[in-house]
Amino acid sequence: MIEDISVRYLDRFSKKPLNDPVFIEGLPGIGQVGKLVAEYMIHVLGAEKIAEINSLYFPPQVMLDETGTVRLARNELYLYQSEKRDLVFLVGDHQSASGEGHYILADCYCDLA
């Protein structure tokens, strides 16, 4: 049976304690503003991708990546660590397709933060 939500941490990520972290969510929405800003910050800061999140609550769609390969829709976590405080970014392809899914995914994201 497929899990409702699957979080896969990348092998290179070591789960060390975070330093006064801030969680920044940039998922698609009206005007894509949050998504674009979060992706820009990830790029400028050089944040490292630490996890991929798949869920049955995402719309039943696939995405085409830069190489032309089809993949399931997913969201991703990125981490930027600094001396002052760490930043954890949530970006991705979709928000939930249902009201119930929004609550369940939000609960998962809070647990991850």
In short:
The protein is α+β, with helices and mostly antiparallel strands and 113 residues long.
Describe the structure.
The protein has one domain (about 5-110): PAC-like subunit (Rossmann fold, 3-Layer(aba) Sandwich). Strand 6 (about 75-80) and strand 7 form a beta hairpin. The strands form two sheets. The protein has a five-stranded mixed sheet, sandwiched between helices. It has about 110 residues and is an alpha+beta fold. Helix content is about 25%, strand content about 30%.
Q: What is the CATH level 1 assignment?
A: Alpha Beta
Number of E strands: 7
Run of helices and strands = EEHEEEEEH
Mean pLDDT: 90
Structural class: alpha+beta
The total of helices stands at: 2
Helix content: 10-25%
CATH superfamily: PAC-like subunit
Low-confidence stretches: none
> What strand order characterises the main sheet?
1-3-6-7-2
Q: What is the beta-strand fraction?
A: 25-35%
List keywords for this structure.
113 residues, Rossmann fold, five-stranded mixed beta sheet, two-stranded antiparallel sheet, 2 helices, 32% strand
Layout: helices, strands, pairs:
Elements: E1 5-9, E2 22-26, H1 33-45, E3 48-55, E4 62-64, E5 70-72, E6 75-80, E7 87-92, H2 99-112
Parallel strand pairs: 2-7
Antiparallel strand pairs: 1-3, 3-6, 4-5, 6-7
